Amino acid sequence: MAKAFDEFYKSTAPIAHSEVPFIVVTESADDCPDIRVYDLTVRTPGDNPRVLLQGVNLHFKPGDRVIFTGASGSGKTTAVKALMNSWDYGQGLVVMPRNVKTMLFSQAAYAPNANLRTILNMTTEGKENFTDRELRHALQSVGLNKLVEQIPGQQVEILIDEMMNHLKNTSHLKKDVGQVAVDFVQRRIPEMFSTVQFVPNEQRNYLRQSLRTHVPESDFDDVFHRVADAMDDALMAPLQKRLALFAADIATRKRGKIYAYTPAKIKYFAWSLRRALNKAVKAYMNNDDTDDAFREIRLNEYQTRRVVDTIVNHTRDEMMKQASSGPMHQVFNAASWPLSLAAVRMKARSAVNEIVQAVTFFMEKQVMTGDTMSLSGGERQKLMIAIATLHQPDILFLDEITAALDKETGAILYKDMLDHLPKHTIVLSIAHNTHIMPYHTLHAHLENQGITVRRIAQQAPGVTPTPSV
After folding, report:
1. What phi and psi, each to the nearest 5 degrees, are found at residue 126?
2. Which regions of 81-139 does DSSP assign to beta strands (E)?
3. Domain with residues 16-110+377-455, CATH architecture
4. What is the pLDDT of residues 441-463, one digit of tens each?
5. Torsions phi, psi of 53, nearest 5?
6. Residue ranges of the domains in the chain?
7. What angle do CA 353, 354, 355 make, to 5 degrees?
8. How confident is the model over 208-240, as pLDDT tens digits?
């Protein structure tokens, strides 16, 4: 122990160990994969500090699963912070292995203000390490199926699988395969999706491959496009419905008060509106402005055209209801045609700006970020378990990671996480409850400013093991 201190300090300056005013955390110089703690003393901050741990020595090896217990205030969380180099109040030396991936999750389960894909990857946006399918499986493994919607394409893939099973079960009825598939997606999509989405290219290819086993080659292209278009239509139906109502309002307000539109003027307005909307909506969907960094594109080219058609057709129909076709009005409009065309174009551009703002607001509201996640405490902890399973860390610190879950669910998910971690991962877990103790190899109990580490004797399933003396 003294030798370790001497080796660490001799390159800086001669100093007594007791004079070091903080906890030193360093990396191993000998490539040792163990966690080694020498003479660790931990105090609370302030003018009247309280000693939580005094002269503690610990040694954990790769593969150790350690559960920390102790009374409230005994210093469990603070000890972990000291090992993580985030607590300076005290003295001692912590030697961590070099070049390892270390992760810490607490019961608060904080999620940064980023989209779900970025949160799961724990990296900056656009620097993903995992495929969307891997993210989907991780969420499903912890029971967070509802979040799969936030990974565009993966919920669509689940829909395609369900549709193919449905086709297998109904193929003996000799019905038109395309119509059976269309009826299924139109019925199932409102049940599966709460957000507007589209069928990405990867999932369109998946749909194409899946349908080939059910559709003759001579009819394949027609059936494929019917089904794919029906999926895109059903996926964007909530947006179409919202914009249809918005279009009726625009039609009423843009009609003008100086003169009533004639059918000819309305056709020109619709043409101007369509031309401007095509450009504006496509520009919005291709927007990668950093001020809108959390928005994910959830419409494709086909759906963009349908959005424009919805707006233009509803606006034109609403204006036609109020159109004037009397002889005097026709004469007036013919005489003022050059002047009124400018007013028509101006009103069309104004309508476009309102529509794009409405689309922007509608689409942004459905993208989940860390600040807008409406998840319970238990769901947030499930998300952290999914992240740990995905990233496979070498050292994993867990602070009451199942505290918000019921005992049975917490134990199942906790065991599954440990089973999927690398065998060499060192797990240091804080827990008040002992129901997860069977999944550990060491029990570290904090009491009287010390830590007693004992090996856990494995017992029959369902029996909470006791530490060996």
Report:
1. 85, 0
2. 90-96, 102-106
3. 3-Layer(aba) Sandwich (3.40)
4. 999 999 999 999 999 986 555 55
5. -130, 145
6. 16-110+377-455, 152-235, 238-365
7. 95
8. 999 998 888 888 999 999 999 999 999 999 999
